[in-house]
Amino acid sequence: MKNRAIFSLVSSTLLVIAGVACILLLLVSTSSIGTPFIAWILLICGFLHALNLVAAQGWKTIARKIPAVLVPIVIGILILVNSGVRARGLTVILIVFFVLDGVFKIIASAGLEMKINAIGLVGAGLSFLLAIFTAAKFPNMPLPLLALFLGLDLISMGVVIFAERERARGRA
Fold it and tell me: Where in the chain are the domains?
């Protein structure tokens, strides 16, 4: 049981670190590395969620967590394959990512026993707010602001996973 708990702790910590790195690196660097960097951050996010799957017990829990693995990986691959993705395309892709991430955070916050996890709902709300603000600024969304939003979302993902781990630990 301890070995499973370490996977969620490691994945949540690495998501927070990836979020901070996303914010810091893109705020101090040029935009030429921006789009591929965001794609790689999304791929890492998907693989960190896959690491969190190792800690999951039961097929229902695994089924609830699989979309959180697939969405960032698919979106990261889409960005990498379309190397000519400009700010507008990247903005649309990240809007979709934020909305889907919010939906999956709501699903994850409900839990198997249908008790609502408030931290999961706050994380979902943040994802939806980021999607709405990004959509509102759509034509003129600068890459550093997209990186900031992605970094904030990754940090909230890490906090939600950590809160879920602590909630599960409290039940045991």
Answer: 2-171
